[in-house]
Design brief:
This protein is an alpha+beta fold and 100 residues long. It has one domain: 2-Layer Sandwich (Alpha-Beta Plaits). It is built from 3 helices and 4 strands; from the N terminus they run βαββααβ. It has a 4-stranded antiparallel β-sheet. It is flat.
């Protein structure tokens, strides 16, 4: 079942975050993941959530998403991200079967 990582990131050091953006994609692809959204414009339709940089990643399964997040391949990039930003990250499983 497809799974999505939804991340709201507040960047505190833009230069270091640029380094992170170069390191992360290869490790994401290695675990079958792909970017669905990566820092594009957001519009609040309801509520008071005001994400500063919203990123959505898609993985074939929740297990692959968890494996990527804990992987040695992502460790250096994750350390950079944690050093230069604050993140709120959730993993959500998608619906089974093809879209309706």
């Amino acid at each position: 079942m497809t799974a999505f990582l939804i991340v709201d990131i507040t960047v505190q050091n833009a230069a270091t975050y640029e380094d992170y953006k170069l390191l992360a994609p290869p490790s994401i692809a290695q675990y079958g993941g792909r970017y669905v959204a990566r820092g594009g414009a957001t519009t609040v339709l309801e509520g008071d959530w005001r994400p500063t940089r919203l990123v959505i990643l898609e993985f074939p399964t929740a297990e692959q998403a968890r494996a990527w997040w804990a992987s040695p391949e992502y460790a250096k990039a994750k350390a950079l991200r944690q050093e230069c930003s604050e993140a709120r990250m959730v993993l959500v499983e998608g619906l089974p079967g093809p879209p309706t």
